[in-house]
Amino acid sequence: MSVPPSKHLVKRSIDNPAHPKVHQWLQKHFLFIYSFSSFQDDNWGETTTAVTGTSELSISQEEVVGLGKGIQDRTQGFRRYLPLAVGSCVGLLVLATPLVFLLLPAVMWPDRLQVCGAACEGLFLSISFKLLILLVAVWALFLRPSRACLPRVCVYRAFLITLTLLLTMSYWLFYGVRILDAQDDDYHGIVQFAVSLVDSQLFVHYLAVVLLELRQLQPCYSVCVIRSTDGETRHYNIGQLSIQRAALSILEYYYRDFPLHNPALLSASKHRAAKHLAGLKVYNVDVGSSANYLTASRAMVTAAGKRKDSAHNELYYEEADYERRVRKRRARLVVAVEEAFTHVRRMKKEDERATPSDIMDVREAALAIFPSMARALQKYLRTTRRQHCHSMESIQKHLAFCLVNNMSPKAFLEAYLVPGPTLQYGPERWMADQWTLVSEASVTSGIKEGTEFLLKCLDFSLAITIKGIPYIRLTEEYIDPKSHKFLLLLQSETSV
Q: What pLDDT was estimated at residue 32?
């Protein structure tokens, strides 16, 4: 067992390397050893001596990041299912309370209860159907799976849950004081009390439908969404929503309407800009005198200016060449796909006359004709810089889908010739868990005229601007139907 050295021995070992045992002990345990006498000094931060090293129990930075990511994933899972758990508990409390109101008197003082007549039994039927309707309504509105994890709690949902709990607790207090303590024998009145609770809960659910669903249906604002990298812009109309709910709706529109963000298309413009800026840099290290230096500098600046004036010509010819190469690759791809589909149709006609054992499966047919178009498709995707958006497995699966449903070659090519929305591609392209809402105002506050906020992702961001829909005033202009009538007069005399 190793014994730590005293403070004097440690200080001497630090100042004088004549104690090899102490140094071995320090290298073995790798502790921070501070000079005890330095704490007596006012400038202890400057005179402190420390010996550092790598501990046997140390972890790497990647492990620390992985640990934080695991904790974050568990927290996100907890936050995702927390509203569903709270809604389930409140729903069970709401549905169980009326039944408990009816069962407690029959269990605690059954001998003192009055006989339940026909009217009382009719109330049993009423409360049964009302509870069934309330159960379906609560399931449809509150027990739906959550679409997103918002940064803050929804104000209206918190208000409705609080109102429901207050209502239930109020009925419980009244029931405990006036019925349980007094052991009321009027069972008909107890049943009416339970029916009134169910009616109140139905009205609260109606209020929830108005606040959570109906209030946001009428469009009140126009939203402008701009993607920061390529300037792709869309406009949408939304209703009365909070900032975080508006951000959620905009992201749903984004995945549906915006084309997939492709950073490879932006690298070409960045390369061209860097090349142009590199052409403007002037270096002159061989000139001796100042006069010669100024003359050479003017010549270089003039050459750089001419290069700058010709930059638009370079851009024009570069874009023209790119469009020419894209049209060429596209024509080759269209011809290759049409020939492959023609071959499939010919094989299908031959399979009609073949035996069932020789008929080829659709998956096998897709694998058989894919090599004939793979090279042309790969070159086209590389030219358009979209090769990372489509894997070989997804292309073969799409080809098999088109063959099963007897689609045309144009229908197969549409997914590759035209960039589709983000949801058309795999989940690895969605980046659904990388969005950050940036807003000066509170995210739980409602949107209004001039509200601006930002949705940041890994490679780009969405800038959102809110504008109110103007108040439209229509006037009516009446047109008399008789004003469209005219009279045709014919002369009585005709020429012979």
A: 38
Contacts of range 44-50, beta carbons closer than 8 Å, 24 or more positions apart: 49/14
pLDDT digits (tens, 9 = 90+) for 447-457: 999 999 999 98
pLDDT computed for residue 12 by the predictor: 42
pLDDT of 142-169, one tens digit each?
A: 888 778 888 888 899 999 999 999 999 9
**pTM for this entry:** 0.70
pLDDT of 417-436, one tens digit each?
A: 888 888 888 777 778 778 99
Cα atoms found within 13 Å of the Cα of residue 325, Cβ hemisphere only: 13
Mean pLDDT over each residue of the chain, to the nearest integer: 78
